[in-house]
Amino acid sequence: MTSAPTILATCKQTRFHLLDDAPSSEVRTGQGTHSGWIVILTFAKIDVEGLSITVTSKPLDPDDASKPKGKGKSKVMLSGQELITDGHLRLKGGIHYGLLGRNGTGKSTLLRAMAEKLIPGIPHATRVAILQQTQDDSEGSYGLSLEKTVLDAVLSSDTTRNEMVKTANFLSKAFEDNDPLGPVRAIRKVKHEQAQKRLFLADKNANLKSGARGLVARKDLKAAELNLESMQRLLEQDLEAVDAETIQADTQEAVEELHNLQSRLEDMKLADVEKEARRVLAGLGFKEDSLGKKVSTLSGGWRMRCMLASVLVQVPDVMILDEPTNFLDLLGVVWLETYLKLLRESSETTVLLVSHDRDFINAVCEEIVILRDQKLNYFRGNLAAYEQDFEEQRLYLSRMKEAQERQKVHMEASIRENMKVGKRTGDENKLRQAKSRQKRVEDRVGLQVGANGSRFKLSRDMPGYHFTSRPEIEVPVEERGATMRLPDPTELRFPGPLVSLEGITFQYKKTERIILDNVNLTVHMGDRVGIMGLNGSGKSTLIGVLTGNLSSPKGKVTTHSRLKTGYYSQHSVEELQDLGRSQAGLTALGLLMAETGSSLGEGEVRALLSSMGLAGRTVSDVPVAKLSGGQLVRLALARIVWNAPQLLILDEITTHLDYHTVTALATALSSFEGALLVVSHDRFLVRSVVEGKRDMEHKLDEEFEGLEEEETEPSKSRRRSVYVVKAGKLNEQANGVDQFEQSLVKRVQKMLSA
Length: 754
Fold this sequence. Notes:
With 754 residues, the protein is α/β, with parallel strands linked by helices. Among the domains are: 394-461; 499-563 and 646-753, P-loop containing nucleotide triphosphate hydrolases (Rossmann fold), CATH 3.40.50.300; 578-643, no CATH class. It has a six-stranded mixed beta sheet with strand order 7-8-9-6-10-11, sandwiched between helices.
């Protein structure tokens, strides 16, 4: 069994660092005796410079960090995959950030390192709540208690509040008993537990620091060890032999601690927390009668919704959401958008989220953090503004570079001519003029604008005597997902609809509700059909009837005699993951070779995988079990298109993709000559692929074929329809996605105002 990867995080800390460096990392105010402090957690910002994060399969040896470093060897060389090098993590209080980056760049690892306080510059007192993409089914640091009900699991997710309730109840029970020494035993036990926590934090702090700070941290660790030993002796002391003055002092300390905890719990208003939990669960799709169900009875998708609710009801300093829309229908997405907007207005909680849903990021985020080339860059504005600014900057710099290249060629030609004439005629003026122009080429060619936006000045913008020229103009490379190309569909030989549903009525049991009620749908070659609807509305049942996996007792299903269908299920990635776990050595190349049989040779299979964005050693050397979610989506696509189908049915295909790859996928689908039936909650995908619209806020690749191309080339005209499944009916939306979205916005407004 392989061990879980270890995250190693280091950063640069200066003596003027703004973050609290104490192991307890608490901001304290007020007065009290002994441990009777009133603790107020405040969060202004996270500002960590020189951040480096490495993932290694080798477990971290605590002794390595505590060993004194020799001169010139203060930097520990870490083996493993380096994800971030000398980055700057900067988050301001109350701001909502969107974290962007290609699949595999380390977004989820960075979020996990923040949540687990593995980054030394993040104070231990910073309260972080996280929703991760993958959760362990067992109860863990971020997991839910499987044996609790949905409501209880959400209410018990705030560990800080739970600890306060537990301690308050423990002290209160000690006073209720008739034993006069009960409060003394209780407060000593509480102080012993606090000493254990301080020792844990001090030990962690000492392992993360070196040099002068490491020396101070190890002194703090020694003090914490002595404090725990002292608390242990007090806990084991025979209270019968303790003097009355000490008993009275400890009892008074227990009274003050209990009063302090009760005051803080009253401020939290636990009744309001339950009301908020019910409201959040309802917004995420939970019915009132399902709140009493055990978490263990829920499917994976509903467990993730429950986990999302448990994060939202907390009041953390930093809320981390990694793909929160993955298991939500469009109603849930719109509700979450609205909820986070209201949170931004009413709370100082900092939100850092990752999502492939462009519209969601654009609506929620105020600033963008870009993880690229192992660095963190920042942009003040939403995703649409960032894309527009990036394109304008790229265009400006490319034009500047082209103009300077032309100028440089002209000046170098003039220099050569002056040198030639000067040497031939012995004209010193010509030679001096040539040298002067050569120096001008060396000094003046480069970036024309300084860091502050003003015109570049060598003496001001190039610090240090050893700098004699301007930096070269570097045109930023557009961050695109791996290009994807779909094979042309097989010819049908004779015309006709690919698939036709007539009067389809379906219910799983006669005593249950009707799922599909007199549904009619016809799909021809080249059609673009979008299917939307809430979870449980019948979309999956409709797909089952279309693919032949379900048979309808009423109605008629007709398919073209030569039809080939490629079906991407919303569980396709999970199926590949299960396959990879059952066959450890299975690769993408081996899987496709086995499934295509003698139809395709190895070269053709490699070409097919390459057209999906999987190439080189990835397809032949990396096991399927080690592929990322985005790579598995590409492999699943290759599995359904290798035989050139005329109809592609895609059910929630964007779930495991980053937003760059979603753009590449939209471009590939737009030029597909066959028919597309897309089931998705992703508004951008349906709007672009099905409706053929070039969203003004989101730039598409130049190869995208939509309504504009159809207007210039009538031969490319297609039927484009968006349907919503509701109450068993298939309703066409005259205004497409926008019509459905607006109906949900009104519904969410009523839910939040209730």
